[in-house]
Amino acid sequence: MVTNIQTQLLGRDVSFPVEESRFAYWLVVLRLIVGWWFLHAGLDKFLAWPFDASWFVGGAAAQTSLGPVVTLFSDGILLSFTNIMVPLGQTLIGLGLIVGALTRLAAFFGAFLMTFFYFINGETGGWAHGVITGDLLGLLIFAMIATLGAGRVLGVDAYLAKTSFVRDHPRLRYLIG
Amino acid sequence: MSQLTTMERVGLYGGGALILIGTVGMGLLEIIAGAPHPVSGEGQVVHETLISLSVRSYTILLGLLLLAAYGITNLATKPPEDTSI
User: Any transmembrane segments, and where (chain A) (predicted)?
Assistant: First the structure.
């Protein structure tokens, strides 16, 4: 089966045919692998509780371009918030991707977290072999999952999209797959 | 497909261009005109950069922020085009 993708770039029609026989397969594989990556990262932190992010948001981040923002979270109540939200966020992002629920929202927050990992890990030595790192590729994969709305393939979002609530509030489609 | 507004163009094309300049563009410059990358005794590649890492970092970060602003503005201002699926 071939579908013509109607699309434009820089004001030009750049529509192209896509053979989509393996498209659904690939979206599900991608979602499951990236989902497990984050679910594992989140659960790992919960299983080894307490999690302390102060070395990252305080020590490592201080001299980086994100330092002025991130170091605000390096002590007090904001550090406690970070210590809970990082593992909880990673777990929920992972779960969201694996079951395909609120996939775009999960992917957005995945990209959000990866932005911090990318710059802080990179500027503290991770860019020794160039600025394209696994963290940046992870960020790009989250962006791709959000762009394609991958949760509609064998995911809860396929059901959510058909509910009358989502039909009545079409903007919610930006959050689901 | 609807035409992009000027703000959408700035977010999408500006953001994408800055990320590409920060990664590919400056990377090419480093390869062509940058300092050599000698390997130290421990096998580490020693980098003496032509463009400081913070300049690259801020360029890529600004690109990501523009893309995020495009996404959030889209979410806030208009419903998706296709609601059939």
Answer: 23-43, 93-120, 140-161
